[in-house]
Amino acid sequence: MLNGRHDAIFPYETSQLPLYRMLGTPQEQKRHVTFPGGHSAFGWRDDLHREGLDWLDRHFGPPAAAAPAAPLPKGPNP
């Protein structure tokens, strides 16, 4: 779970922690990461994206290299 520590919409003590505790995922497979700030990711958006991408890489593997693009057809434009 990725949250702002001072989120006024989903407060840490009354919303984030109860939801995290109720998740059915085994404790060793879940993590609650909080960032300084509120509901908006202003100031920590890059860290938020990095955490999300790292999670995807851990669970699904890093993205494969893209295949080379096919050459564009030659000829008149339709």
Key structural traits:
mainly alpha, 2 helices, 8% strand
- Please report the distance between the alpha carbons of the first and last residues: 49 Å
Strands of the widest sheet, in order across it, are 1-2
Task: Give, in order, the helices and strands.
Answer: EHEH
The number of distinct β-strands equals 2
Structural class: mainly alpha
**Number of DSSP helical runs:** 2
Mean pLDDT: 91
Strand content: 5-15%
User: Could you state the oligomeric state of the chains shown?
Assistant: single chain
Q: Describe the largest sheet.
A: 2 strands, parallel
Low-confidence stretches: none
- Principal-axes geometry comes out as elongated
Tell me the helix content.
25-40%
What is the gyration radius calculated from CA atoms?
Answer: 20 Å
Describe this structure in words.
The chain contains two helices and two strands, in the order E-H-E-H. By secondary structure, the protein is mainly α. The protein has a domain at 2-24 and 32-60. The chain has a two-stranded parallel sheet with strand order 1-2. The termini are far apart.
List the SSEs and their pairings.
Elements (H helix, E strand, L loop, with lengths): L1 E3 L7 H11 L10 E3 L9 H16 L18
Parallel strand pairs: 1-2
Q: What's the short version?
A:
This protein has helices spanning 12-22, 45-60; strands at residues 2-4, 33-35.
